[in-house]
Amino acid sequence: MLTSMGEVLRPAEGEIRCISDSINCGRLWPIGGRNVLSRASHSSNEPGAAASASDDAALVAAVLQRDRKATAEFLSLHADSIYSYVRSRLIPRADLVDDVFQEVFLAAWQGLAGFRGASSLRSWLLGIARHKVEDYYRLKLREALPIETEEGDPLPLILEPELDQAVDLWRLTQKVQQILGTLPEAYSLALLWRYWENCSAAEMAAKTGRSEKAVERMLARAREQFKSRWKGE
Amino acid sequence: MTDDSFFEELSSATEAELGKMARTPSRLKAKVFSALLAQQAESGPLLSVSGCEASGRPLCVFEKAVEILPVGERIKSLNFCRVCHARVAAEKMERAPIFWPHCPYSEFQNR
């Protein structure tokens, strides 16, 4: 279970398959940044994708005609996946989830004429959501990074977790959420961006206009604080 | 194991659980729908209620009343939801007591 830093663990093989099936069935939003979005776009080769693409195209056409009923359907169909994604990526700022969620749909309306159906409508919306979340990460880290560069060297990082034991995923996730929710906001966002969105430190540096070294230092401090809270359970 | 590996494993193990579908609060859906309609109405007339019905999406009782009025399409294209009590209730209450068939604000309710 999850009593120490060394007890985080990988789900059993069957659990992974189950999660994967759930994603394919659309019960879960796709996760993991670009890997996930590309996985979603592959679905266009699957059986039923053609029907789904024509449904998307018909719905988009109706929304573009300013059909109020189609607009309600558009929102109802995709609200939960976008909401789930945004909520999980803004763990330390639950108060911002509603605003970002609304921004995603308003941006989608403004850009809907440009939807070409290259990916599913849901993937397209998740792409917008991802950009909105990243905009927030960029803003907060840009503010926080100069402070980080003035600090000393990061603490030595020594961690030898054993990631091969059985895991209670629900408890694990709760614990991760709880820690991310109590870390300084910039640290939580940096960890989410780096590890849950799979953005490299170099990319983060380029997107925030800061040096890679500064980003690495911030990440090191964020990891250190995360670990100390993890151990302090 | 390096710190990077640890956090990569941690994200991999928790991402599915973190991403489990959460229900969007119905109030939020109502607010966003109102904002979308307002934006659409700013950039041009909405599709008239007759047009909506013709496209196969049924109307709520109020829209139906407007549809049968002897008025022009321009009037039938106004954003009637803006002045509807269902919108106000849905934006303010998580479980708004609105049950009109085919009313978007009623259909947004997580019951």
* Mean residue pLDDT of chain B: 92
Number of helices, where a helix is a run of at least 4 consecutive DSSP H or I residues of chain A = 10
Specify the CATH homologous superfamily of chain A.
Answer: RNA polymerase sigma factor, region 2, helix turn helix motif
State the low-pLDDT regions of chain A, or none.
Answer: 1-47, 148-162
Class derived from helix and strand content of chain B? mainly alpha
Give an overview of the whole structure.
The complex is a heterodimer of chains A (233) and B (111). In chain A, 39% of the residues are buried. Chain A is built from ten helices and no strands. Chain A is elongated. The longest helix of chain A has 30 residues, at 121-150. Chain A has helices at residues 13-24, 34-42, 49-64, 68-89, 97-111, 121-150, 169-182, 185-196, 201-208, 212-231. Chain A is mainly alpha-helical. By secondary structure, chain B is mainly alpha-helical. Chain B has seven helices and no strands. Chain B has helices at 3-18, 26-42, 49-54, 61-67, 73-76, 85-92, 104-107. At the A-B interface, helix 1, helix 4, helix 5, helix 7 and helix 8 of A face helix 1 and helix 2 of B.
Concise structural overview:
The complex is a heterodimer of chains A (233) and B (111). Chain A has helices at residues 13-24, 34-42, 49-64, 68-89, 97-111, 121-150, 169-182, 185-196, 201-208, 212-231.
Task: Furnish the topology, listing elements before pairings.
The complex is a heterodimer of chains A (233) and B (111).
Chain A: H1 13-24, H2 34-42, H3 49-64, H4 68-89, H5 97-111, H6 121-150, H7 169-182, H8 185-196, H9 201-208, H10 212-231
Chain B: H1 3-18, H2 26-42, H3 49-54, H4 61-67, H5 73-76, H6 85-92, H7 104-107
Helix pairs in contact in B: 2-6
